[in-house]
Amino acid sequence: MVLITYDVETVTSSGKKRLRYVAKQCVNYGQRVQNSVFECLVDPAQFAELKHRLESIINKEKDSIRYYFLGSNWKTKVEHIGAKESYDPEGPLTV
Q: Which of 85, 90, 86 lies closest to 42, judged by CA?
């Protein structure tokens, strides 16, 4: 489990475009849990691919990305309180 957070400059139209592209890539690999925060259950190869994609999108002088590696025992490291029900990415898919 990798927690990915990002802060993308949105003053310019190009920044807003980068923000959309970053979010779209994260959605392909995980679940949005807050505005600029995604939980991604990925293997090392998937993480390397996602990291490469994200870092090719952002402007490293204006934007930032942080990766938090929670590991395979992530369930004991995450506590959810409040709105937006928590989910289990290893559980059954519901529509």
A: 90
pLDDT of residue 75: 65
Q: What is the pTM of this model?
A: 0.79
Please measure the distance between the N-terminal and C-terminal CA atoms of the chain and give it in whole angstroms.
Answer: 23
Rounded CA gap, 35 and 38, in Å? 8
In the block, residue with structure tokens 């999108």? 57
Strand pairing report for 37-40 and 31-34: antiparallel
Cα angle at 6 between 2 and 31, to 5 degrees?
A: 45
58, 18 contact by CB (below 8 A): yes
3-class DSSP state for residue 94?
coil
Length of the chain (residues): 95
Question: Largest alpha-carbon pair distance within the chain?
Answer: 40
Whole-angstrom Cα distance, residue 18 to residue 8?
7
